[in-house]
Structures are given as C-alpha cells and as structure tokens.
UniProtKB/TrEMBL annotation:
<keyword id="KW-0472">Membrane</keyword>
<dbReference type="InterPro" id="IPR004031">
    <property type="entry name" value="PMP22/EMP/MP20/Claudin"/>
</dbReference>
<feature type="transmembrane region" description="Helical">
    <location>
        <begin position="163"/>
        <end position="183"/>
    </location>
</feature>
<comment type="similarity">
    <text>Belongs to the claudin family.</text>
</comment>
<feature type="transmembrane region" description="Helical">
    <location>
        <begin position="7"/>
        <end position="24"/>
    </location>
</feature>
<dbReference type="Pfam" id="PF00822">
    <property type="entry name" value="PMP22_Claudin"/>
</dbReference>
<keyword id="KW-1003">Cell membrane</keyword>
<keyword id="KW-0812">Transmembrane</keyword>
<protein>
    <recommendedName>
        <fullName>Claudin</fullName>
    </recommendedName>
</protein>
<keyword id="KW-0796">Tight junction</keyword>
<dbReference type="GO" id="GO:0005886">
    <property type="term" value="C:plasma membrane"/>
</dbReference>
<dbReference type="InterPro" id="IPR017974">
    <property type="entry name" value="Claudin_CS"/>
</dbReference>
<comment type="function">
    <text>Claudins function as major constituents of the tight junction complexes that regulate the permeability of epithelia.</text>
</comment>
<keyword id="KW-0965">Cell junction</keyword>
<dbReference type="InterPro" id="IPR006187">
    <property type="entry name" value="Claudin"/>
</dbReference>
<feature type="transmembrane region" description="Helical">
    <location>
        <begin position="121"/>
        <end position="143"/>
    </location>
</feature>
<dbReference type="GO" id="GO:0005923">
    <property type="term" value="C:bicellular tight junction"/>
</dbReference>
Amino acid sequence: MNPAVEVACFALGFLGWILVGVALPNRYWRVSTVDGNVITTSTVYENLWMSCAMDATGVHSCREFPSLLALSGYLQASRALMITAIVLGACGVLATLVGMRCSKAGGENYVLKGRIAGVGGVLFVLQGLCTMISVSWYAFNITQEFFDPLYPGIKYEIGEGLYIGWCSGTLAICGGVCLLCACRTEGPDKVSYPYQSAKRTVYSGASQKTPSNYDRNAYV
C-alpha cells in the first residue's frame, strides 16, 4: 500500500472520530424556531443530554434530562449509537496505526499488517454508519414535528451539532472505504528465493555440458 494513501485514510478516519467527540457534547442539536412567533422571549436548545433556555438578556440556564427511561426511544437510541461510534472509532484508530507500513508496531509481516489495516477500515465504516443513523434519526424527528400542524409542543430547527455529526460520518465512511479498497487491491509480496535461481543455473550449465548422443560423428 502506498504510504501516502495510508496517511490520507488514517487522517480522514481520525478526523471523523474527533468530530464525533465534538458533536456529542454540543448543546445545539436542535434550536427552537422563530417561525410563526411574533414575540420571542427566550430561545430553547437541546442535545441528547440536556435542555437549555436563553432569554433576551443573554442569561441561559440548563437542566439535564432527569430520567433515562422517561426519554423518547429515538433519544435513547441516538445516545447508544453515538457512544458506540466513539468506541468503534477509537478501535479503528488503533488498528490503523498498527496496520500502517510506516509504523513499527506489528513487526515486518506486511500481510498481517494489511489485514489489521483492513479491520481498521471496517471499524471506521461502522463508526460512520452509527453516527449517520443517530443524527439522521434525530433530524427526522425534528422535521416531523416541525411540519406537523397538530403538534402542541415547541417546534425546533436543526442545530449545528447535527451538521458536525453528518460531517463526521461522511469523513469516517470515506476513510474506511478508501482503506478497504487499498488493502483489497494490494497483493502479497512476491519473495524471490535465491536457491531457485541457483538450481536453474546448475541445470542450464549441466544441459550445455552434456554431450549429445546424436552427434554427426555417430553416423560416420
């Protein structure tokens, strides 16, 4: 595998993993909309862990969700998927570091290192899928409530935390797929054995020195 390709794939996966850690604690997963409101006294914004409100003077207060079991099903699933994405991304970073040819970890067995790098690519893809499912599911519920005319609660719009999550999932999937394709197209190294060439030299020399039984003198 080309070392430049390795570094590029690792950089994409690592950046996607970092952005998961940025998106998860971000408070602006959804922000209350001003559409249809004549007077807005406060802005409400939420994420997977807490709900915050900020008044017109800039003072904000936050409260954590009191009970896990009292939350909606998509909130619980989004939490689990995001935490799983962080764990998968961490394992993918370690596996890719071990599988890179420029690293000393794993010895000089490049076939084994290529397989470990392929495992890292799979982990990056799984991380990206978990992140994309989580943020897309959360955004779907926001849009569903926003366009529902009979919804009695506060309507929200998509916040910056979801955009960070989408960027994270895209980078992780791209890095993992490129790493897998690079490992698939790479074949095992052909090892040349010196004793084979020596045998060929001996055999060729012997065939040249062996006299032929059907020489011209045999018919005289």
